[in-house]
Amino acid sequence: MKNLRYRQYRDRLMEMLLVAATIIVLVPLLIIIVHVVVNGFSALNWEFFTEELGSPSRALQERPTGLVHTIIGTVVVDFLALAIAVPVGIGAGIMLSEYPEHMLNPTLRVMNDTLNGMPAILKGLFAFVLIVKPMGTFSGISGAVALAFVMLPIIARTTESALLSIPWTIREAGLAIGLPRWRVVLSTVIPAAKTGLVTGILIAFARAAGEAAPLLFTSFGNNYLPNHWSGFILEPVDTLPQRLYSLAISPYAEWHAMGWAAAILLLGFVILCFTAARLATRKRFKT
Amino acid sequence: MMRLQSQVKSTSILYRWLGDRIFTVVVVLLGASIILITAGMAWVLFDEGGLALREFGFFGFLSGTTWDPAVQLQFGAWPFLFGTLVTSGLALLISIFPAIAVGIFSAEYAPKWLSSLIDNLVQLIAAVPSVVIGIWGIFVLAPWMRETVYMPIYLWAETSAPGLIPILGHPIGYGMTTATIVLSLMIVPYTAALSKDAIESVPKEQREASRALGATRWEVIRMAVLPYARSGILAGTVLSLGRAIGETMAVAMLIGNKNTLPFSIFGAGATMPSVIVNEFREAVESLHLSSLMAIGFVLFIIALIVNLLAAWIIRKYSISGGKVV
Fold first, then answer.
1. Both A61 and A38 in a single domain?
2. Is the predicted pLDDT of residue A115 greater than 90, yes or no?
3. Tens-digit pLDDT profile for residues B177-208
4. Domains observed in chain B
5. Which of A208, B4, B20, B285 could disulfide-link A150, Cβ–Cβ 3.0 to 4.6 Å?
6. Which residues pair with A170 in a beta bridge?
7. How close does chain A come to B302, measured CA to CA in Å?
8. Which residues of B touch A268 (CB under 8 A)?
9. CB A252 within 8 A of CB A65
């Protein structure tokens, strides 16, 4: 051991280095957010929410354009995905936590983690082969399925840990008053774990809502509103992340500005979901 | 009384036995569908990529350096494999120490309010969608890098070291370096959050014991905390590498998309996800489509290896038997 002064000097030095590293890491990340917020808000206007995009000439001739079809499409595709992913994910979570003795569980856990670790783009390719190919057209529903693949493993995992956090004594109490096992799960364990479930679903939703890669080959994109509402499900549909990508790589300055507006909208939505999820968890820990 | 009892009994058989049966079957079916999805994904990618894999052979496809969908219809994945490994590896190298430093600072040094502020910020940044980072990269980072970094170095090389020009490549702003920088920014929050989790799971007694022996704060961290948290930090790093490998949109928007080797430092390149994004929508030739699917299959295998490696590290080295992270 070196002498005390040297050790204290090194302690001070390391502390300063750690502070410096933290600042170096956090500042560029904050800069990104500031840029998106500033550029995004200046590009937002009323027409953005009321008009459809149309062809590039529409923006070049300064006729009103917007992304109303994209916003509706995003809501439709995201909630369809949620409707597919929630029952399956919660079911798998129940299987993992309530039937720990089931012989498929080790396989399920590995497969679920594998699915969670897969790049989202592969889920898009899978949904393309599974749905777009047989249907013969890009469609909103195929995009929803691709996003559901993104949500599924997250929901399954958070459900499992939320259910496991409920003490076994609650289940035993339910069984002791004569409830069958399925009623114990549905009427005592799940209500008790409700906040945990909602948090997990919100996180999965926020994660999937920001994904563009799986949507490029499934819901594809569309510059116009469909003629009939079913077009949002059965025809190519525009979604925010994918439209943001197309706008950003397009050669038109007007579309670039619209891309920034789409970015602030998408960022705001995702952050809203995450904040809601965090607030829900915090409340649970307080009580 | 008797009637009531028998009634309870007759409903309860239906309610209990049948209810439990149905519930179990439904739950197991839902769980099994995840197994089917994962296995199906691997099978579909392998099956769809089969045409290309048969044509060139698995290792021939991996090591093939020509990717020409237009004239020769020759497909080799090596440029993209190379691009992915280089950008992700370098991004990990750049981000790993600062990210762990953030984890250490937030867990050990920062007062409670600052620590929770840093945590929230890290979580917030991890939540920013990849396309949003991508648009920032296109309109802010890439032009800035071109003006302040690439051009000066390029102009310097042009006058005083012309031999470097082919290695540096065209300073258009979109290329390997820009993509690597953005990737490292994107994985920092993951590494930081996972390292912090690992550090916080170290028992308090571990710190108190070394404090009692007269260790300074840094010595406590270096001798008592970090060795204990090592496996968690390592696993978190491997998981972040997996993120970097699969990161698609931001890279596709910033790497410049060039399909032929050699890649240069500033010049355009490509990664496996970026080539799929760029070419899949336009691919018409069945061999081209199949080759893109085969690249997807290779990506699947790499992601699988990375995830299994992380799980193995946690199980093998963790003192608490796989509960860290």
1. no
2. yes
3. 999 999 999 999 999 999 998 998 888 888 88
4. 78-317 (1.10.3720.10)
5. A208
6. none
7. 9
8. none
9. no
ipTM comes to: 0.90
Say yes or no for a CB contact (<8 Å) between A245 and B131: yes
Q: For the residues A249-261, what does the mean pLDDT come to?
A: 89
* CATH code where residue A233 lies: 1.10.3720.10
User: Which of A 5-64 lie inside 8 A of B, CB atoms?
Assistant: 7-8, 10-11, 14-15, 17-19, 21-22, 24-26, 28-30, 32-33, 35-36, 39
Specify the number of domains making up chain A. 2
In angstroms, the CA B77 to CA B298 distance is 9
Size of interface A-B (CB pairs under 8 A): 260
Rounded (10°) angle between helices B19-48 and A68-98: 120
Residues within 8 A of B (CB atoms), A 163-222 only: 180-183, 185-186, 206-207, 209-213, 216-217, 220
Q: Are A159 and A93 in contact (CB under 8 A)?
A: yes
- Within 10 A of A51 (CB to CB), how many other CB atoms are there? 18
Q: Do A25 and B293 touch (CB under 8 A)?
A: no
Q: Residue B1 — pLDDT band, cuts 50, 70, 90?
A: very low
Those of residues 247-286 in A touching chain B at CB distance below 8 A are: 248-249, 256, 259-260, 263, 266-267, 270-271, 274, 278
Are A24 and A77 in a shared domain? Answer: no
Specify whether A58 is located in the same domain as A38. no
Q: Which of B16, B28, B299 sits opposite A122 (nearest CB)?
A: B299
Mean pLDDT score of chain B: 86
A37 and A141 in a single domain? The answer is no
Q: Residue A2 has what pLDDT?
A: 64
- In the structure encoding, which two tokens stand for residue A267, read together? 């960022």
First to last CA, chain A: 48
Share of chain B above pLDDT 70, in %: 93
How far is residue A154 from each of residues A2, A242, B232, B236, measured CA to CA in Å? 49, 22, 20, 17
Q: Please check whether residues A203 and A95 belong to one and the same domain.
A: yes
A28 & A151 share domain: no
A121 and A193 fall within a common domain: yes
Read off the pLDDT of each residue in A36-56 and give the average, rounded to a whole number: 86
* Residue B104 distance to chain A (closest CA, Å): 8
B135 with A263: Cβ contact below 8 A: yes
Judge if A19 and A138 occupy the same domain.
no
Residues spanned by the domain of A237? 49-286
Of B15, B105, B246, the CB nearest to A119: B246
pLDDT 10s digits, A157-179: 999 999 999 999 999 998 898 88
The answer to whether the CB atoms of A119 and B98 lie below 8 A apart is: no
- Indicate the pTM of the whole model: 0.90
